[in-house]
Structure formats: structure tokens, C-alpha cells
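Job type: complex structure
Entries:
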Amino acid sequence: MTANGMQAKGMKVWHFSEMAYHPAWEHLGDSYRVTIPSRLFDPKIGADLYHRYLDEWALCDELGINIMTNEHHATATCADSVCTIPMAILARETKKVRLLALGMPIGNRNDPIRVAEEYSMIDVISRGRLDMGFVKGVPFEISPANTNPADLTERFWEAHDLILKAMTSHDGPFNWEGTHFQYRSVNVWPRPYQQPHPPVWTPVGSAGSASEAAARGITIGVLNTGWARTPAIFEAYRSKARDVGREPRLDKLAYMALIGVGRTREEGWRRADQILDYSRTSGNVAPQFASPPGYVPAAGAAQMLKGGGAMAARATRVQTKDGHPINPRTMTVEQAIDAGLSFAGTPDDVWDQLKAFYDHVGGFGHLLMMGQGGHISHEDTVDNLTMFSKEVLPRLAELG
Amino acid sequence: MERIDIGGIAVETEIVGTGPPLLFLHGGDYVAQNRACLDRLARRFRVVAPRHPGFGATPRPAWFRTVHDIAYLYLDLLDRLDLNDATLVGHSFGGWVALEMAVRSQARLGRLVLIDSLGIKTGGREERDIADIYALPAEEVLRRSFVDPAGAVPDYAVLGDAELLAIARDREATALYGWKPYMHDPALVHWLHRITCPALVLWGDQDGIAAPAYGERLAAALPGASFERVAGAAHYPQIEQPDAVAAAIEAFAQEKRP
């Protein structure tokens, strides 16, 4: 029991990798996204990397670490452009751990019924091990999908409602003539393994979005918000959950951290430093794609206009504990630890940093562990995950 | 600024000047910068300049989502104000709205003026008729929009909150109506033959958003249209050359009908 009264049965850990195609990075300048040519992707190297990342996820089944995928488009930072493809492979390659796709950009996909079918099939093949994420997507996903940024939010929620209805209706077709999606015969086969449907997750980055998710009982994943911005987001979730009469359980809250464990502090930091290339590269995007009109509500967009644009706004997103902005492109491990973005060092170091963060934000039930990123080798990734599983994971049972 | 209620939408509308009626439909951005041209037109016309739903301070109901909706709204506005033999002027995105109105009804229209108008596609599927302002660097969009960007673009750091919010809403609404298909209605070009009133197509001779050749194709598809270039202007001639544009509209309005 934590101070805020939330119950948990021990923290769950999920290994997350963006399946980066880092060999292209050295050829890229200020932007790693949207317009970079695919001739920079060598399919032979790409095949090796896909198999390597899948092997690392498959290992998690033995280590007791759950699996998380995501997707991005037209980028060398994340070559996982369809989050359900690795999940489909892992649904059969693994037997025990849970599979979280965080997730499907349903406001950017034209066919929500296809999403319901993909998720249902994975849930059945994995015998009920799917956690399904629905994401709005970062602003630079708008251009590859060519979806309208000005009504993304309402399209997202209509797709969400339709997918859940499609997965939970088992008596033949129903009619859906909505604003964004029209079907006269929705009839999804197979029905999901878990009843009424797999758990629903969404990533959020603001108190407003957290509150929206809390009202619907959706589990939130909070990424890159750190020591400074996370407490208000979790508090908004707990507060809204109570308002609508839901118990604000710890297992509704997830936090992502970049984790490097080693036998020595130096080894853990070296691993974290390589994984941190995720944070150093993922925001590298040409400014015109960073805030398409309507993506941010008009009041926020007006303030951005005054403050020098979206890139200026993005530059203050990562902060030290005492509120000073850190440049994500040049961030050191020490700064990332201070900012609460990374837990790194010996197993004791990692535990101490994690526990301090946990107490600071009022607790959470899921740790989304970026255990692979950037140029970290396969051998180091395997050792990182294995050490975490043996030396840190057992201690997490006491959280909650 | 007046609020005119049309079908439950309180449309922010500026009405200035006296004379024959002129309905001015603004483009997607730099709405406040139309001021000089509208003031000049107000010497000869009764200028009616509404802010489209979703733009500025005009609300947009959830169901109201397409340029067709805006076109019907302003056909209602012409009825409401009982404007007859009106000169309809549309710039850029507002030109698209004007075209959609005119293919539906010219009952209250005397003349049509299109300034660097969007709304049609004439090229093939791998050709881009209209520059993608959402994918080009901001500086390049400015270079394509204005001959002298420094003389036209406001200093956002000193604008008041209400003005900034209005601009943010302008940009959001432009995206909402114009994102896909991009700034045009695929069928519209096939209905332009219905526009039989005299039309003047004015085009900034350095427009890098929609090139003058696009404007010439638009003019060629309108049965009664003539095409004129405006020197010293790009996509916003009424902002960069307000007197020349106003003078061209005044002269056109005085021409005898064929």
C-alpha cells in the first residue's frame, strides 16, 4: 500500500526496443525521420537486426520479463513499422510472458476493423497474453500516414470505441455509421481469447490526456516525462479515476526508463549511454513536421507561436530534478539519471534510483524497460536483460 | 465586427464601406493582413468579409467539416443580407470556397474574382499542383508566399493572446478542410463550366504555392474568365500589392457585361 492508497501485486517489467536501424544514423543530419531515403536501409543488415531484436525478446520469456513493441514510420530510429508483426512472431515463439503493443496508431490507420482482427488473432494465438495499446502517435507520424491532424483526437476515440465494440460483439454483424468510419456489417473473426477483451493501454504525455484515459479505465504508459513532469500526470490519473468511481490501482500506471545494468557502475553506465542514443536521436526531425496544425489544441498552438515554435517547446521537455532544461541530443548518462529518464549502474544503483523515482511519483505498477537502444550490442543487451532479471527483478515484488 | 447568425453559427463578419456589395472570402493564413486591401475596396463597395467557421473567433459545429459546408453557409449569407449582383472575391483557400459557391448558385452573383485561388487539381497523380506547405521548411513556405516576407509577416512575439489564438485557429481550420485531398475537390474542375458570370483571375506573378500556370489553367476552365498577373507579389497579392489588386477589382466591376 502506498501513500496514495493504490494497491499493487508487485511491479511488472516489460522489455521495449524500437528495433532501431542505427547503421543509417551516421549518414543522417538533423532529421532522422519522414523524408530520409530508404536506400540508407540495407535489407541484408536489416534482416540480421530484425532477427537479433526478436531473439532478445524471445529470451525475455525465459527471464520473466514481459515484451513491449511499438511502431513508427519512415524513420531510422525505429524500423518496427508494424507493431503487430513482431508480436505475431512472438505470440508463437514465447509461451509465458505478456505481449504489449504500445502500440497501434488507430487515428492514423484507415481501417479499425483490421486492427481488431490483428489484435484478436494475436490474442488467440498467444492464448490470451496480449495487452493492446492504442496510440495517437507523435506529430511526425502525421505526414507518413497523411491523416488529418486537426481531427486526430476525435478519430482516435471513434476508432477506439469501434474496435472495442467489434471485439466484444459476438452475435453477428452490427452497423457503424460514424463521423470517420462507416461499416454496415462489422463482424470480427476471431473473437479475442481474453474476455471481454485484452487490457487496453495508451501512452500519455500530459495531465489532460491522463485524465481522459482515467475516465475510461485505460492503463497509461508515460514515456520521457522524467522526474519533473511525471508526478502531475500520475496525480491527474489518480484524481480522475477517483472522480469517476474507479479504484486508482497501481497497475494502471506504467513508466518507461532506459536501463543499463552492469557488474560495475561503469559497465551499467556504458550500456545506458549506448541505449540513450534513442533519446538523443528520436527527436531529430525537421521542424515543419514537429507540430502540424491542429495536432495541439489551438490555445497551446497560440502559445507555441509566441514562444518561437514547436522546436523551442520541445527543447524544454527534458529537465533536471531542479527544473533546468537538458538538451536531449547531448544528454549524458548522469543527466539522464538526474532527470529520471534512466536508471543505470550496478543492480543496487538501479534499484536505488528506481525506488526513489517510484516514491517521488506516488508509485506505478509497470516498468517499461528500454533494455536495448542505439548501438548497444546483442551480447551487452542479453547480459543487461539477464542481470536485470536476476539482480533487480526479484526486488520489485516489494513494490506494492 | 458583427456576429451574423446563420443556421445556428455566429459568423464573425466585418461589413465596411458603401456601394455595390462585395463578399470577400479570406485564405488560410494572414487574415489580418488583408486590412489595407479591404479598406481600399470599402471606398467603392459595401465589403462583407466573414471569418469562416473554425477560423478566427467563428465557431465550427462538429458536423461542419467540408468546404461544401462553407459554400452553402455563404449562399445563405447572401440570402440573409439580401445581396444582389454581388461581386464575390476569394483568395487562396477562400477562392476554393468561392468556386464551390458559384458552381452551386450564381443567383445573387454578378461577378467572380479569384486571387491565387486553390480548389482544383489538373495535374496527374504524381504531380503536385499546389506546394505542400505542411512538408516544406517554414522559410521556404514564406519565400514561396511573399516576394518580401519581412514586409508581410507579423511579429508573433508581440501579438496579443486573442490574435494569436485566432491565427492558431485559422491554421487548424485550414488543415481540417484542406488536408486531404490536399486543398482541392477532385470533382470541382469538372463543374467549372457552370460558372457563366464574368470572372477575373488575378495571380501573383511570383506565386510559389500555386504557380501562375495553375491560375491560367483555372481561368481556361471558367467560361467567362480573364487572367491577369500582379507584379511584385507571390501568393498574397492583396497583401503585397493592395492598391493594384483593389484597382483591378474596381475596373473589372465597372466593365460592361458581354
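Summary: Residues 2-254 of chain B form a domain with the Rossmann fold fold (CATH 3.40.50.1820). The first strand of chain B starts at residue 2 and ends at 6.
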